[in-house]
Amino acid sequence: MEKTAKIYIAGHRGMVGSAVYRKLKNEGYQNLIVRTSSELDLRNQAEVIRFFETEKPEYVFLAAAKVGGIIANNTYRADFIYENLMIESNIIHQSFTYKVKKLMFFGSSCIYPKLAPQPLKEDSLLSGYLEYTNEPYAIAKIAGIKLCENYRLQYGCNFISVMPTNLYGYNDNYHPENSHVLPGLIRRFHEAKVNNADTVTILGTGEPKREFLFADDLADAAHYLMLNYNDSHFVNIGFGEDISIIELAEIIKNIVGFNGKIDRDFSKPDGTPRKLMDVSKLFSTGWRPKTDLENGIKLAYQDFLSK
Fold first, then answer.
1. Main-chain phi, psi angles of 145, to 5 degrees
2. Quick check: helix, strand or coil at residue 240?
3. Could you give the 3-state DSSP secondary structure of residue 86?
4. Whole-angstrom Cα distance, residue 206 to residue 244?
5. What's the CA gap between 278 and 112, in Å, rounded?
6. DSSP-derived 3-state class of residue 219
7. CB 183 within 8 A of CB 173
8. Quick check: helix, strand or coil at residue 270?
9. Would you kindly state where each structural domain of the chain is located, as residue ranges?
10. What is the CATH number that goes with domain 7-171+212-240+276-292?
11. CB of 304 closer than 8 Å to CB of 255
């Protein structure tokens, strides 16, 4: 990937896309192409065709997606499957049509079956039932992986896929209903502190375990793989360790400086009991994450305060 190559980052305003943009800028890439959703509707095939016709990018990072937490995924089920299928289908097909040299598709750890053996190995894909609450989003992401695989098989396209674990960091979504667990907890503890509340309630038992990766570490891994990986099989990107939601809440509580107590709402669903990625494939290449959870949350909280 030459420093002067035309590189399109789809979804550059989101957490993943903005992290990739920062990484490439810092590495000295000079020709980054971006569009906001108001400038280019990636769900619209005609608009995407016109964009590729005009810009002719040589490399593509496909980080654009409709994303949200457990409540959003379960509420807007049709929107999540339709919009994500359209975005990835349009970009991947036009990348083939306009002879993009290499494309990277960002999936999600929710592609794995609900009860797949832990840690989650790449070959567990399609080996069992998905978690119901985010099934539409997961199916769309699986379709993206299979698009990349099959454009490679039929046409020889160098399209690769990566599966990040749960991410957090700069430009995260802190919406009170539609955010993921970590940014959602940052917001709730912060508001409780500001309002001098006695308690913060977390949804479910707090026992499920999750793995978290700082988004700038994901961008570092993505750049590394774009330079060094050309296989048809997708690659897990994670931290390699997980933590229970109740332990996560305690860390965030301390960083935010909330002095009340933590309650649990046992009537709410827990989702998947555990989601730890097997990152042995990636780690065996020599790459490692740089940001530990506590320091990463401190950086994310400062970003939240600045917004």
1. -60, -45
2. coil
3. helix
4. 7
5. 12
6. helix
7. yes
8. coil
9. 7-171+212-240+276-292
10. 3.40.50.720
11. no
Active site residues: 137
Give CA–CA dist 301/68, Å, rounded: 19
- Tracing tokens 């593509």 back to the chain, one arrives at 60
Q: How far from 227 is each of 38, 160, 224, 230, 269, CA to CA, in Å? A: 31, 11, 5, 9, 41
Amino acid in the structure at residue 114 = K
CA angle 152, 156, 157 (to 5 degrees): 65
Query: What DSSP state is assigned to residue 195?
Result: T
Query: Are the C-beta atoms of residues 203 and 177 closer than 8 Å to each other?
Result: no
pLDDT tens per residue across all 307 residues of the chain: 999 999 999 999 999 999 999 999 999 999 999 999 999 999 999 999 999 999 999 999 999 998 877 778 888 899 999 999 999 999 999 999 999 999 999 999 889 998 899 999 999 999 999 989 889 999 999 999 999 999 999 999 999 999 999 999 999 988 877 778 899 999 999 999 999 999 999 989 999 999 999 999 999 999 999 999 999 999 999 999 999 999 999 999 999 999 999 999 999 888 778 889 999 999 999 999 999 999 999 999 999 999 8
At 163, give phi and psi (nearest 5°): -115, 100
Alpha-carbon distance of 173 to 178, in angstroms, equals: 8
